[in-house]
Amino acid sequence: MARRLGLGDTGPEVQRLQALLTQRGYPVAADGAFGEETRAALLRFQAQHVDAHGEPLAVDGHTGEPTWWSLANPQPFVFHAPDIDFTRMPLPELGGSARGRHALSMALEELKAGAAEEGGSGRGPWVRKYLNGHAPEGSPWCAGFVSWCFWKDPSGPPFPYTVSARKLFGELGQRGWAHLSGEAYTPEPGDLVVWSRADGTEDHIGLVHHVAYGMLYTVEGNHGPRVAGFSYVLHTMERLLGFAQVPGP
């Protein structure tokens, strides 16, 4: 019987756990010490997987027999996702930085308020608020929406205000906050997600709501005429450039 592991444990079995978590897409250093990083990765894994009977795992940060089984048996399973309530914040155990989660909370308030274009594409008072004088009405406003959400942080803006998704992703990459498509990284609530557009003219950016059962759920502006929630199969996303997490404060 596999050992039940938890915070503070050390040894080869902890290294085995860490290696399995990394293999399953929840990267963590295999140092043999069950610390907060390992616990956070395990909580995310448990929140998104089922046991041998198809039942959700207990999200408790310990490796009971059901969790060991799920870690060792990563075969796909069929999950019928419930309707996602994009107006509610994701559970704390799904992770996310404090700044990212605050930005996401602001995005959800805008969604609930009905933020949308008015009077034509890229026009209206909501869009003008997000463009914030950085571009004329009629311009793409997805990055302006994301910038506005992060600039509402009470600790101050974490990056320069911009209405360019490409410029914003480049800025975050220079700071070491970005994870390019193909890297072993599991996005968390409040992360930024960036795509290239099919015509190559400009990129598109949104906020991660959460990841569950191989699905990515996002909140985006300018993916259509209003702020809204969207869902994607995480590992088959076309033109995905990557993710970024704004740390701190």
TrEMBL record:
List where this protein forms a coiled coil. Answer: none
Q: Which InterPro entries match?
A: CHAP_dom (IPR007921), Papain-like_cys_pep_sf (IPR038765), Peptidoglycan-bd-like (IPR002477), PGBD-like_sf (IPR036365), PGBDSf (IPR036366)
- Pfam families xref list: CHAP (PF05257), PG_binding_1 (PF01471)
Q: Which SUPFAM superfamilies match?
A: Cysteine proteinases, PGBD-like
Task: Pinpoint the Peptidoglycan binding-like domain residues.
Answer: 10-49
Domain Peptidase C51, first and last residues per copy: 137-222
The name under which this protein is listed is: CHAP domain-containing protein
Organism in which the protein naturally occurs: Pyxidicoccus fallax
Taxonomic path: Bacteria, Pseudomonadati, Myxococcota, Myxococcia, Myxococcales
